[in-house]
């Protein structure tokens, strides 16, 4: 039987965090209770409040406490340029790394029939509405290069094709600073076949 | 098998599906030549930049070794078995369909070496051929045969040669039954003969063949819907 009591309960609860096993969870429990009770209280309140108030952006489906996220609400963002990503973290990464001036659509997943995830689970109906509204001129498919990510990109490509929109997809290739010898075969083959003239 | 650490059982296989398992591992469904279909855990496959996650790509052939007596085995090593062109577009959706069929229809750890060969050839064909529906029909017939439902496509239930101009109702138990009038469920003799030869000429034959094979496959599935087929159909409605 698992140990009872509040200490054990807190340790078990902390194990829901990524990368936290039983040992680290126990260390966190003791640390918070012995050394940083105020920090622990803030953590608990922040988690509770975020759970109550953070939901999905009405336009792009990323996580936000407002109706629309900061990017969608920003009037200086180009609404005609839409980048489709699988997760909020990927939208954040592209936003920070690329100087992208358009807006995002976050799928919060990818098509995976064998896991029971279809177009409705990804809310592709919302994306379809936006395509139909005519405000989008270019769509950038930035799904992952897994088979599910590729299938998702193809599906959205077929959706967007009817609407006379420019459709592009992230380029595959050599990692920066990478050496040919150490790059895996599939990446190397993509980089080779998708080579650019200079 | 050179290159693979000798630990546990060795086999060749196809990755049917994989999903994240715990923090750094993958749960992988494979269809192997000698051990049939089963599920295994690839420990640490998502950690770091190790090559394992690239090797365990759905629809790709691998050479693998594994241990474990229970239902869930443990992968001890895997390497890629060649340069399959990655599936693209519609072929990916066909890949999901075949993977779902095999996961639903094959009992665990039941060897089907002939079907394994055909599946490997099919996935290769998906990358090379544009006639996906022909490849699928051909494979579905082989799958039914492997499941013990071989189709008789060159003669009818009474042992008479199939008439290309005739109309037939196909019964999985009895075979082709000649009917006088064309109905939504009937197929032409030309379609049956085309399926037998592996070459369906016209649009009508292809459509009839697809419907016929769908009914046969559905029979094996006991009416439970296939998610990959629903997805493919919603793609085609585009």
Outline the biggest β-sheet of chain A: 4 strands, parallel
Distance between the termini of chain A: 67 Å
What series of H and E elements makes up the topology of chain A?
HHHEEHEHEHEHEH
The gross shape of chain B turns out to be elongated
Kindly report the CATH topology of the largest domain in chain A.
Dna Topoisomerase Vi A Subunit, Chain: A, domain 2
N-end to C-end Cα span of chain B: 47 Å
Of all chain pairs, the largest interface belongs to: A-B, 24 and 31 residues
Let me know the number of strands of chain A.
6
CATH class of the largest domain in chain A equals: Alpha Beta
Q: What's the domain count of chain B?
A: 2
* Alpha-beta classification of chain A: alpha/beta
CATH architecture label name of the largest domain in chain A: 3-Layer(aba) Sandwich
Strand content of chain A: 5-15%
What is the mean predicted local confidence, pLDDT of chain B? 89
Radius of gyration of chain A: 22 Å
Describe this structure in words.
The complex is a heterodimer of chains A (198) and B (238). By secondary structure, chain A is of the alpha/beta class. Chain A contains eight helices and six strands. Chain A has helices spanning 6-14, 22-35, 37-53, 70-73, 88-98, 124-133, 147-161, 185-193, and strands spanning 55-56, 63-64, 78-85, 102-106, 138-141, 166-169. In chain A, strands 4-3-5-6 form a four-stranded parallel sheet. A two-stranded antiparallel ribbon of chain A has the order 1-2. In chain A, strand 3 (78-85), helix 5 and strand 4 (102-106) form a beta-alpha-beta unit. Chain B is α+β, with helices and mostly antiparallel strands and 238 residues long. Chain B has two domains: 2-80, Nucleic acid-binding proteins (OB fold (Dihydrolipoamide Acetyltransferase, E2P)), CATH 2.40.50.140; 131-236, de novo design (two linked rop proteins) (Up-down Bundle), CATH 1.20.1440.120. Chain B has seven helices and eight strands, in the order E-E-E-H-E-E-H-H-H-E-E-E-H-H-H. Chain B has helices at 52-55, 90-105, 113-128, 132-146, 189-197, 203-220, 227-236; strands spanning 9-21, 25-32, 36-42, 61-67, 72-80, 167-171, 175-179, 187-188. In chain B, the strands form two sheets. Chain B has a five-stranded mixed β-barrel with strand order 1-2-3-5-4. A three-stranded antiparallel sheet of chain B has the order 7-6-8. In chain B, strand 6 (167-171) and strand 7 form a beta hairpin. The longest helix of chain B is centred in the C-terminal third of the chain and has 18 residues, at 203-220. Classes of the chains: A alpha/beta (198), B alpha+beta (238). Chain A binds chain B through residues 18-19, 111, 113-116, 118-119, 146-147, 150-151, 154-155, 158-159, 161-162, 184-187, 189, and chain B through 16-17, 19, 23, 51, 54, 57-59, 80, 83, 86-90, 92-93, 95-96, 99-100, 103, 226-228, 230-231, 234-235, 238.
């Amino acid at each position: 039987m698992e140990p009872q009591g509040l200490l054990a309960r807190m340790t078990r609860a902390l194990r829901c965090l990524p990368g936290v096993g039983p040992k680290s969870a126990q260390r966190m429990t003791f640390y918070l209770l012995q050394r940083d009770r105020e920090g622990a209280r803030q953590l608990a309140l922040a988690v509770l409040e975020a759970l109550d108030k953070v939901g999905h952006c009405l336009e792009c489906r990323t996580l936000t406490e407002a109706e629309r996220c900061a990017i969608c609400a920003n009037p200086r963002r180009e609404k005609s340029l839409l980048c489709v990503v699988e997760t909020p973290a990927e939208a954040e990464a592209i936003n920070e790394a690329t100087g992208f001036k358009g807006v995002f659509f976050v799928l919060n997943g990818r098509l995976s029939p064998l896991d029971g995830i279809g177009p409705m689970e990804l809310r592709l109906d919302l994306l379809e509405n936006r395509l139909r509204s005519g405000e989008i001129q270019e769509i950038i498919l930035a799904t992952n290069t897994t088979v599910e990510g590729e299938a998702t990109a193809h599906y959205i490509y077929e959706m967007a094709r009817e609407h006379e929109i420019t459709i592009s997809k992230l380029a595959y290739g050599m990692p920066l600073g990478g050496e040919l010898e150490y790059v895996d075969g599939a990446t190397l083959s993509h980089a080779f076949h998708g080579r650019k003239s200079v | 098998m050179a290159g693979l650490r000798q630990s546990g059982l060795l086999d060749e296989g196809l990755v049917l599906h994989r999903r994240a398992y715990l923090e750094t591992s993958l749960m992988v469904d494979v269809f192997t030549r000698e051990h049939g279909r089963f599920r295994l855990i690839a420990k640490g496959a998502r950690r770091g930049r190790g090559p394992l996650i690239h090797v365990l790509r759905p629809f790709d052939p691998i050479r693998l070794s594994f241990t474990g007596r229970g239902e869930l085995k443990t992968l001890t090593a895997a390497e890629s078995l060649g340069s399959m062109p990655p599936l693209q577009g519609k072929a990916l959706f066909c890949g999901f369909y075949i993977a779902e069929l095999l996961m639903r229809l094959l009992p665990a750890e039941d060897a089907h070496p002939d079907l394994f060969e055909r599946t490997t050839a099919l996935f290769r064909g998906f990358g090379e051929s544009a006639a996906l529906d022909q490849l699928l029909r051909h494979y579905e017939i082989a799958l039914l045969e492997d499941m013990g439902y071989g189709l008789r496509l060159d003669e009818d239930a009474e042992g008479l040669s199939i008439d290309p101009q005739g109309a037939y109702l196909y019964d999985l138990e009895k075979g082709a039954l000649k009917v006088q009038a064309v109905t939504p469920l009937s197929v032409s003799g030309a379609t049956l003969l085309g399926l037998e030869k592996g070459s369906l000429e016209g649009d009508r034959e292809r459509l009839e063949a697809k419907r016929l094979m769908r009914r046969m496959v559905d029979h094996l599935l006991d009416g439970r819907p296939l998610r990959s087929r629903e997805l493919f159909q919603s793609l085609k409605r585009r």
